[in-house]
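Bumping with the actual sequence this time:
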Amino acid sequence: MDLNCRLSDMALFNRYSLFLFKLFAMAAYVFASWWAVQNRFVLPLYVDVIFFLLFIDRENILSLRNYFIIYGFLIFKLSSFYFFPEKYLLPFDGTLYLTAFLLGYELKKIFSGKEIAVPAVDYAEVEKNIDKVLWLLKLFIGLKLLYLLFIIVYYGFSKFYSGEVLVERTYNYGRKSVLDGILMIYTNFVDSFIAALIVIYIKFISALNRKPNYYYLVTALLIVPLLLLARSAFAFGIVTILSVYAYFIQNKMRVYLVILPAFILLFAVAVYVGNLRLKNYNSLEDFSDVSSTENFFTELTPIIAYNTVKDNIGVLKYQHGRTIVLPLLTKVIPRGFWQTKPDNSTSYYAKEFDPGSFYAGFMMPLTLFGDLYLNFGIPLTCLLLFFTGILIAWFDHVYINKEFRHIDNYFILFICFYSIVRNNIPESVIYVLLILFAKKFIEFFMLKNRPIR
């Protein structure tokens, strides 16, 4: 008994010691970044890399924590260095945002309670519901393929797969179009139900302590987006499948072995689809000299929008939630139906400083950071990111400890997480809400019995 108490005390001591060390490291990082700003130079990139390596979770490489840290690092450190090598305030903003998030995350970890109690499971009912879920998933994949068939018939096979349609539909964004409005509602509806069915399936399979059938996941999350030339959906899909694989696999080393080929495939698809778009943009603008490396960095261009907002906040003014609340409430209405509906932060910024891109439907997103900054300024943004860290720590706890009762909610957030960190808040939150609604609808009307309580 005494030995167990000593071991428990030692574990608690190590836990708090590690927390204090990380707290000191965060404070040192902020101080070093502040000192660099005071002396008007950019902190050397290797300092950021050391901080990055210190706080990355190497055991759970596909956690939401890592997702957030990696994206923040790419935007405020790597792309800031690439696009604005002389600007020292942009990396400092990133330092504040990342440390605020990590402080909330680490505090939640250190003061988190015991694991959630194991729920009661009706295994026979779970088996029945898995069959229903897979049948419904096949149905909704069929509805998505029906949409693809319509697009191909309407526009023509060669026009679609040459990338011309991608550009044409981008330029039609925001213009009055009943057809585009109907197609947007249809695809949002189908995509939400596909995502909801996948997370319910993962929850049920996890409750049975079995591995999923990846055929359904690959079809819904990779093959269908690839056929639609939807590189963002393909990217979400490949990262989600990796996260599911890491959740069910015992040998973490195997996760690292599949990550590299998976991201090589992702990069190849992203560059291919991106080049299709660029080739067709050439008829309107000159993109002929854009390389694959520059194509990659286009994913990091939101730092340009963020920088413009910061430099011109006196013109744009802090919005105090105006570009978040109303656009979220009206998000489900396609702009093709209501062209003057309230603007989100991305549209508001683009109308002021990049109207050509706005009316062409090709706008740079401000990211979560830019949206919060435009509305609330840096101090309140840091506070909100602190609470975001607390929330993400709870979700990661569910994932890491395989608490299957809530794992469906975790994967809803994971599927939408790239959109959450990259896009404006209404754009990303609406998809989370649509998937949650679809999940509740399926559970209540199609599955009825609740086999996990």
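The tokens above came from a reply further down the thread. Residues 21-110 form one domain.
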